[in-house]
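Methods — Computational structure assignment.
A single polypeptide chain was analysed. Its primary sequence is given first, followed by the predicted tertiary structure written as structure tokens.
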Amino acid sequence: MDELRWRRYRRVIDDLVEDSLRGQGQLGPRRARAGLWNALATAEFVPEQHAINALLARLSPEEREVIAGMLFDRFTAGVHQALVALHAHEIEPFDDGYEGTPYHDFVGRLDDWPWPDELVPRRR
């Protein structure tokens, strides 16, 4: 059972990393870099997104890159905080981790750290 738990744990952490780096976590940064948040937005239809379009249009590519980085950081901070809560409430399999906690493992995997060779971590 332990092996199944840790395989699932690794899969979830890696899915969250994949989503951050190549999935939903890149949606906002891609839009910011393009300088267009929502092509369908108008002053009458989703005016808050129209305002974002207007703001992005005024920014230089370098400034839009700053916004893209901020959006990526906020996405990964949300994932991190969700893992903090799952760990704090001892929700399996997030009640333990390899590098201390699931959120440490998430941050490490974002930086392309490899998983340890042994599937089941040694008990501390």
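Note: The CA atoms of residues 66 and 102 lie 28 Å apart.
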